[in-house]
Each structure stands twice: as structure tokens, then as C-alpha cells.
Amino acid sequence: MTWFPLKGGETLEDAAVRISYSLDDHYNGLAQKDCYKFLLVFGAKYLTSMEASFRELEFKKFEPTSFGFVVGK
Fold this sequence. Notes:
Layout: H1 12-27, E1 38-42, H2 51-56, E2 61-64, E3 68-72
Antiparallel strand pairs: 1-3, 2-3
């Protein structure tokens, strides 16, 4: 589990997208032998406007949940 603070004026949904890029830098296939396959995001709602950003990180599955959302590769 990783926790990141919000930046001033940032929504939870904006933070989820921003943080996903940071996590990808550290845990993608170039950084780790066994890279991550999904993210569980707590507290932020999945918005369709996020999809383009997550697709840039090679996510293909998007699932809203009662706790937030899950994106998977």
C-alpha cells in the first residue's frame, strides 16, 4: 500500500491519475522484473475522463467499485 498527499486544489480523482504515473515509473516492466498488473484506488471515483491517461500506462480494464476503482493491464 502506498499513500500520497494531495496537492493544493487537487481532487482525489486528479491525484489518482497523477500518482498512477509515479507508481508506473517505479513498478513497470522496465523497473521491476515482475511488474505490477493492477491498481486498487481507494477513495476516488472512476471517471471516464481518466481512461485516456490510464491507457497511456497500458491499462485495459476499468472497474468502478464500492471503495473507488480498479484498473488492470
